[in-house]
Amino acid sequence: MTVNGRNVSGEVEGRTLLVEFLREGLHLTGTHVGCDTSQCGACTVHVDGMQVKACSMFAAEADGAQVATIEGVAANDGTLSAIQQAFQDHHGLQCGFCTPGMVMAAASLLKANPKPTEHEVREHLEGNICRCTGYHNIVKAIMAASGQEMPALAAE
Ligand code: FES
Ligand code: FES
């Protein structure tokens, strides 16, 4: 498969999850494991442009696919993407555990829908859990990354 533009290969057992291959095989530990049961979204990556929970897919299923992880989001010189910068500017993270998954989910949303409403952002993040419960600023950051102001964000 290709991961963040780099060709990689490896031998895996049939039961090896994509997230295990990324973390343990390729040492791309930015993709987190919060539940292993497809609920938290901490393991969100893109596979052939689609948002995928990497704990819900076998590594072998990604044979030949183009995979993107959080490690490939910033520019090579370390410059943050607009979404990452917005998370920083709007305090869209606390402990940071959910952040890679949130950023990958946000990137997927904004690619498909560059100007989402607040409701659409919240709906899209349904599969991503923040155990620090910092949703308010996460939504604010994603709205800002889409170039939209959020002066009167409703508290949820
Ligand atoms: S670790 Fe994959 S959804 Fe929680
Ligand atoms: S910032 Fe801690 S889990 Fe979301």
Question: What are the key terms here?
Answer:
156 residues, alpha+beta, five-stranded mixed beta sheet, 5 strands, 31% helix, binds FE2/S2 (inorganic) cluster
Order of helices and strands: EEHEEEHHHH
Distance between the termini: 40 Å
Radius of gyration (CA) equals 15 Å
Percent helix range? 25-40%
Number of helices: 5
The average pLDDT is 95
Widest sheet, order of strands: 2-1-5-3-4
Can you count the beta strands?
5
β-sheet strand percentage: 5-15%
Unreliable spans: none
Structural class: alpha+beta
Report the biggest beta sheet as strand number plus sense, adding barrel if it closes. Answer: 5 strands, mixed
Q: Provide the list of bound ligands, each named once.
A: FE2/S2 (inorganic) cluster
Taken from the alpha-carbon principal axes, the silhouette is: globular
Topology, element by element:
Blueprint: E1 2-3, E2 6-7, H1 18-25, E3 44-47, E4 50-53, E5 66-68, H2 82-89, H3 99-112, H4 118-124, H5 135-145
Parallel strand pairs: 1-5
Antiparallel strand pairs: 1-2, 3-4, 3-5
One FE2/S2 (inorganic) cluster binds at residues 93-99, 130-132, 134.
